[in-house]
Design goal:
Layout: H1 3-14, E1 19-26, E2 29-34, E3 38-43, E4 57-63, E5 66-72, H2 73-76, E6 89-94, E7 99-104, E8 106-113, E9 118-119, E10 133-139, E11 142-147, H3 149-153
Parallel strand pairs: 2-11, 5-7
Antiparallel strand pairs: 1-2, 1-8, 3-6, 4-5, 6-7, 9-10, 10-11
């Protein structure tokens, strides 16, 4: 078992008997993040662009006095040109060091998984960064790509690592 799979398994095992994930779609794939990191869900609204920000940072919004960066995950994961419609959702995340908004195509539901339903992520070559993957969750015929959103959002390429607490 590689270090990523071992770390993901320790997160899953520490959770006890079940884990709850908010499921959402990006393109044709379904993803899941820990429901404990979700602060609220909002429709997509206009954002204030920040000059020289990476393309995936759509801008910022003022959320009840807190300036929140908005990350479009479709651009971040290179899933084609995003379109914004009535199904587009901004998931407001409360992470350890900051609050951030994540744009996704749609939100499905909250899924409860047992550790047995979560398989370790496949081993990939080093060209593909997978250190933010917890694993793959299976529910009936559905497969969720489970993301450690804290790790993903605090990655050096996100530009959010040094933010002060909100």
């Amino acid at each position: 078992m590689n270090a990523v799979a071992h770390n993901a398994q320790s997160v899953i095992n520490a959770a006890g008997s079940t884990l709850e994930f908010l499921s959402f779609t990006l393109g044709k794939e379904e993803y899941g993040i820990s429901i404990q990191k979700v602060q609220e869900l909002r429709g997509y609204d206009t954002v204030t662009r920040i000059a020289n920000a990476p393309e995936f940072i759509k801008g910022v919004v003022n959320l009840r006095g807190i300036i929140v960066p908005i990350i479009d995950m479709r651009i971040k994961f290179k899933l084609g040109t995003p379109s914004y419609d009535q199904f587009t959702v901004v998931v407001i995340l409360h992470l350890e060091n900051h609050v951030v908004g994540m744009v996704v195509d749609s939100v499905s539901d909250v899924i409860t998984l047992t550790p047995e339903q979560i398989k370790p992520p496949p081993e990939m070559n080093s060209a593909l960064a997978t250190d933010y993957l917890l694993g793959l969750g299976t529910v009936d015929e559905r497969m969720l790509i489970l993301i450690d959103i804290e790790k993903l959002m605090s990655g050096a390429d996100m530009g959010l690592a040094e933010r002060s607490p909100a």
